[in-house]
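Page 47, continued from p. 46.
Same chain as before, 149 aa.
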Amino acid sequence: MRAVVQRVSKAWVLVEGDEVARIGRGLLVYLGVAKGDGHGDAQYIAEKVCHLRCFEDEAGRLNHSVLEVNGQVLLVSNFTICGDCRKGRRPSFDLAAGSQEAGPLFDQAAGLLRQAGIDVKTGLFGRHMEIGSVNDGPVNLLLDSRRAF
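Result:
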């Protein structure tokens, strides 16, 4: 399971022109589920997102988590994060889980974040979405439950 985590001052999701989710200060998290991922991968990503110190303290150091700043999370499914661009010019998505495998794990990750006390909004799984955000920093972090990076 992979995630691109962006610190934002606000973010929103549109589906067919209608806003389906919006957050204020917090994290916009694009989540890709790979073949073979399971509950442990969802736990790893949720734990990291909850406790990543990516918000500044009074001294300007990245010392606070989204939990500590009472931030929100906008979780958006994105299978292209599991793309492999090492060969040729067209990404291969052979490593990405299909929607029947990925959907429940996406829901699990959202549920684990909520259980931790975070206000979580989500995009619509499997739908074409327009994502808007105002990046704060910018701060962009990559997570991989298999610790590839």
